[in-house]
């Protein structure tokens, strides 16, 4: 009987964690909506169908790289160039996955891969912040509550953008493209721990900005990520 009660209790706790993650992710899901509509609309303007758009956004699930791929899309497409730029833009996920690795020690190989597949910038930040608050490992219920909500929102509204895009024309004239930086500003505000802790952010911003000005392509993404990581490591060692 006690074993059954423990099992029921663990299922109830996991369900509560999942609901908590979903609720915490709702503001970000709302921020995804205009951004997803813009991407879907722009993709159809480049010749994507309403079926191809959710295939791209569902298999890749990385907004920045998808915008870059759509921007570079031609007929016929330069596949190697698009793959290279997609890798560069998504290279930050290597560092994000490395930050998650110590928090996934209790997960099986399949469970860890599922976490990494659904991981995006926002769900990564939420899962990491929740683990640090609890001083424990990654809470899978909380993470998937947020991540699956974000994933579904992204696919649904990129598809909607693909369907309505031909009727709206250039949707950026409505200012929808500001949704992406707005979401990240909200995330940074939630992770703020004072000016000293934010020094790596400044380093990353400066290096990324300088790289964007002086180097063509998406090299500013790995440059900003790596410089911020090195700065954080340096200041942690000096503390």
From TrEMBL:
Q: Name one Pfam family in it.
A: AzlC
> What's the protein called, per UniProt?
Branched-chain amino acid ABC transporter permease
What family does the entry list?
A: Belongs to the AzlC family.
GO cellular component terms, A-Z? plasma membrane
Task: Please give the chief subcellular localization of this protein.
Answer: membrane
Q: Where does the secretion signal sit in this chain?
A: none
Span-the-membrane segments of this chain are 25-44, 142-168, 174-192, 213-236
List the membrane topology term(s).
Multi-pass membrane protein
**Where, subcellularly, is it found?**
Cell membrane
Report any one BP term from Gene Ontology. Answer: L-valine transmembrane transport
């Amino acid at each position: 009987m006690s074993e059954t009660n423990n099992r029921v209790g663990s299922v109830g706790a996991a369900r509560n964690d999942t609901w908590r993650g979903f609720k915490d992710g709702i503001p970000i899901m709302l921020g995804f909506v205009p951004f997803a509509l813009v991407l879907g609309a722009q993709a159809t303007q480049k010749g994507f169908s309403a079926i191809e758009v959710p295939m791209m956004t569902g298999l890749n699930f990385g907004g920045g790289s998808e915008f870059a791929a759509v921007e570079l899309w031609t007929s016929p497409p330069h596949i190697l160039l698009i793959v290279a730029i997609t890798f560069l833009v998504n290279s930050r996920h290597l560092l994000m996955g490395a930050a998650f690795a110590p928090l996934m020690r209790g997960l099986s190989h399949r469970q860890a891969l599922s976490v990494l597949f659904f991981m995006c910038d926002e769900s990564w930040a939420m899962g990491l912040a929740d683990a640090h608050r609890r001083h424990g490992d990654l809470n899978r219920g909380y993470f998937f509550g947020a991540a699956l909500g974000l994933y579904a929102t992204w696919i649904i509204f990129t598809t909607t953008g693909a369907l309505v895009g031909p009727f709206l024309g250039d949707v950026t004239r409505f200012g929808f493209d500001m949704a992406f930086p707005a979401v990240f500003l909200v995330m940074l505000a939630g992770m703020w721990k004072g000016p000293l802790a934010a020094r790596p952010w400044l380093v990353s911003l400066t290096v990324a900005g300088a790289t964007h000005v002086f180097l063509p392509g998406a090299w500013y993404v790995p440059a900003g990520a790596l410089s911020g990581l090195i700065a954080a490591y340096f200041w942690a060692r000096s503390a």
